[in-house]
Design goal:
Layout (H helix, E strand, L loop, with lengths): L9 H20 L29
Length: 58
């Protein structure tokens, strides 16, 4: 009974459609990582781990 109907402009619907399409394209190129299958102790590709225990770099 207390429903509120929200007006959504044409431009807002188009913006949402374009965002969804862009996300689908991005996910087809870069599939989302599946945390269940990946080892949590491995560093990300292209980002080697450099911690304090590795020594001073200067």
């Amino acid at each position: 009974m207390g429903e509120v109907i929200r007006f959504v402009s044409k431009s807002e619907r188009e913006r949402a459609r374009l965002i969804a399409e862009a996300r689908a394209i991005y996910d087809s190129i870069f599939p989302p990582a599946d945390p269940a299958n990946e080892g949590q102790d491995k560093p990300a590709i292209g980002r080697p781990f450099i911690g304090r225990e590795r020594g001073n770099l200067s």
